[in-house]
Amino acid sequence: xxxxxxxxxxxxxxxxxxxxxxxxxxxxxxxxxxxxxxxxxxxxxxxxxxxxxxxxxxxxxxxxxxxxxxxxxxxxxxxxxxxxxxxxxxxxxxxxxxxxxxxxxxxxxxxxxxxxxxxxxxxxxxxxxxxxxxxxxxxxxxxxxxxxxxxxxxxxxxxxxxxxxxxxxxxxxxxxxxxxxxxxxxxxxxxxxxxxxxxxxxxxxxxxxxxxxxxxxxxxxxxxx
Length: 225
What we know:
mainly alpha
């Protein structure tokens, strides 16, 4: 495996890790709200957080490109505070990935939070547990299956991004060229050996990820029954 491929792998892991952490911090409260609220706007929020799941990546990438360009309000604001653009940068990839992978974080968390035993929350409240204690010692341990599923699927989904990444980041070596783009570049240059190696690696990674998630969910389900 050449240096370019190794660099792409490292960049991909970095992107997936940052995206997963950011989405957990953002998506957790959103998922909790969706699981607990009966507000009239709930359906709209649910639709917005699920939209990336049904839209073609190129559609999302196109609109991200319009929003992130330096002449758009969001893009120009980012340039003003950082001196860098969102388009064709790693920062832009992170922001786009957070939005694009949102359903893979929020949906499993939402399901897990909906299944929480209300008596546990009431007991914690009666015992005087503060918000952070309740989250760390009651909600997260009781939702560990959904939390782990959300983290693993978000990471794996981000690793496999192509359409959004290509439109927002292009193919800048060491900066925006992740594994999916590296495979595309290898195929274009007829470098099938490296393309096979990277594509096979992604295939194995995706398969192992799904096996792990299903096996973990089955074991925890049996343990709780």
